[in-house]
Task: inverse folding
């Protein structure tokens, strides 16, 4: 008799095969130039750009950690997430359109091209590339964590977290290395549809399996822990998270280069609006699963879920991130579980592929090409491919250390990315007075990034500053404020000299 | 129109001004949750903070769609 885990893993493998076929086709029509490898020769239409943007924005963070946070902090996550996801859509238009116009006009490929050109500073290019490389590693790591959880849970523990993460990280690294971000854009279309259908199906199936109506779900939540129905973040943490996930994520290089890839401004504007609707509505079914988990964690389900299962999962995986995957595996039909867990894998892989592609772009274009300006396009693509594999493996090595909750790690990564904002604003929005010049942009970026690393709880514990640490969203907001002040003050001082 | 002109922020259009102000107000109103942050049941047994956040989400989504139709180009 076929067991549950065999069905689930077979469906996940089918999904992987589908992704590899798509990327193979993308490889066949790839022209070996950096512009085609990374930004689709600036020809992405609305459907491709929208699904690539939305599925890249949503990662293991959306499919796994959102449910974990809903199950432990309740509706707080929705109150924050509806604000940051809609803000992300607005940012995609306000900044994205300007990035697109400049990119098309000046032929930018990497995000640092824009900053280096607008500030006339190669040093700013290198510093920005290095800052991104540091923080992006965190983002790559969390996707590997998510993939390890999915394979481990989906196999009923027969495939270890470490091996599961390695398999899927290598799959993503290989298809990006073969077909560049063209392959990632194409596979994102499949992944974007799959994960959205998956999260809604999971939300409706799991919530209505135990509660005949939404009303009864909320009633049960109130009964087990009424605090889950209130906002449990301090105002400064709420503000920090909204800014970090609304603006910080949108200006990370993996989404930034999607603005370059757009075909025209019509694509940019509808991409922004549709992305806001997609990524915000994604959290409604996640909330249903998370709140159901909170209730079942107290009451249990005889024969399926024992009370306190969230704590047990936290002990196994180092965080509560496995709640969604575990509930899917235990509570739904094996075929549906396979489909849904493949959707979860799609969420993680669609972000992982973009990050792997982008970090190789940043390091190839902004650092290697500066060192070796005569390198041919073919050799640049080869270096890019090697970097993709290397960073995939680095992310895997960090993931197997079980560094903690995906939410916290992403907040640090996005908080670091957010520190580019002062320089970006001055670069893309002309003002009568130049508030920030290249000196201010560089010093502000360095100071802001260091503050994020030193004062964010997830990284402070490694640096030895845990006693002074804040939640990452809050620390990143403070870092941004200091960054703005430093950037403006330094710019004015150096200007006067 | 030059590229630098296209990059400038323009609010001469009354609709642009209105939608910008409404958007800023909507995000400030997010913090009003703290004034009624209680789990008491309302519509569909939802708490007031959740119901309020859902309504605010709909309002912002409408603003974004209207802006995309009428304003953004």
Result:
């Amino acid at each position: 008799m076929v067991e549950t885990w065999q069905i689930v893993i077979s469906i996940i493998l089918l999904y992987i095969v589908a992704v590899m076929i798509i990327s193979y086709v993308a490889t066949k029509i790839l022209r070996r130039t950096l512009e085609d490898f990374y930004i689709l020769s600036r020809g992405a239409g609305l459907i491709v750009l929208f699904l690539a943007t939305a599925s890249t924005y949503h990662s293991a963070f959306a499919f796994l950690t959102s449910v974990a946070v809903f199950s432990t902090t309740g509706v707080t996550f929705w109150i924050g997430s509806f604000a940051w996801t809609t803000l992300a859509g607005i940012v995609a238009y306000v900044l994205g359109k300007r990035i697109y116009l400049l990119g098309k006009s000046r032929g930018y490929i990497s995000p640092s091209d824009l900053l280096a050109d607008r500030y006339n500073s190669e040093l700013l290019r290198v510093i920005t590339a290095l800052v991104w490389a540091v923080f992006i590693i965190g983002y790559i790591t969390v996707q590997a964590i998510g993939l390890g959880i999915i394979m481990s849970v989906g196999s009923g523990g027969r495939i270890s977290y470490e091996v599961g993460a390695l398999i899927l990280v290598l799959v993503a690294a290989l298809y990006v290395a073969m077909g560049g971000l063209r392959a990632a854009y194409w596979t994102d279309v499949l992944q974007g549809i799959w994960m959205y259908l998956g999260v809604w199906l999971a939300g409706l199936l799991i919530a209505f399996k135990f509660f005949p109506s939404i009303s009864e779900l909320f009633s049960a939540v109130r009964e087990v822990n009424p605090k889950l129905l209130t906002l449990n973040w301090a105002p400064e943490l709420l503000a920090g998270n909204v800014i970090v996930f609304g603006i910080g994520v949108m200006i990370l290089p993996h989404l930034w280069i999607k603005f370059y890839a757009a075909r025209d401004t019509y694509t940019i504007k509808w991409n922004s609006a549709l992305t806001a609707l997609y990524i915000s509505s994604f959290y409604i079914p996640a909330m249903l699963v998370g709140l159901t988990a909170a209730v079942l964690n107290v009451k249990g389900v005889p024969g399926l879920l024992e009370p306190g299962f969230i704590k047990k999962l936290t002990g196994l995986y180092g965080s509560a991130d496995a709640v969604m995957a575990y509930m899917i595996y235990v509570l739904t039909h094996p075929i549906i579980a396979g489909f849904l867990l493949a959707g979860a894998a799609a969420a993680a892989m669609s972000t992982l592929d973009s990050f792997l592609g982008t970090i190789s772009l940043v390091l190839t274009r902004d650092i290697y090409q500066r060192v070796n300006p005569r390198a041919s396009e073919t050799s640049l693509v080869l270096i890019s491919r090697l970097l993709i594999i290397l960073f995939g493996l680095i992310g895997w090595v960090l993931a197997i250390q079980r560094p903690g909750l995906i939410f916290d790690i992403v907040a640090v990564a996005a908080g670091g990315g957010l520190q580019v904002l002062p320089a970006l604003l001055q670069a893309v929005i002309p003002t009568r007075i130049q508030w920030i010049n290249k000196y201010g942009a560089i010093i502000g970026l360095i100071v802001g990034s260091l503050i994020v690393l030193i004062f964010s709880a997830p990284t402070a514990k490694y640096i030895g500053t845990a006693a002074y640490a804040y939640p990452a969203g809050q620390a990143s907001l403070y870092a941004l404020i200091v960054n703005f002040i430093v950037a403006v003050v330094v710019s004015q001082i150096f200007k006067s000299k | 129109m030059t590229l630098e002109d296209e990059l400038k922020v323009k609010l001469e259009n009354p609709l642009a001004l209105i939608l910008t102000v409404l958007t800023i107000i909507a995000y400030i109103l997010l913090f009003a949750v703290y004034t009624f942050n209680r789990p008491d049941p309302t519509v569909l047994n939802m708490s007031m903070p959740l119901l309020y956040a859902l309504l605010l989400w709909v309002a912002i989504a409408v603003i974004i769609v209207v802006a995309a139709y009428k304003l953004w180009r």
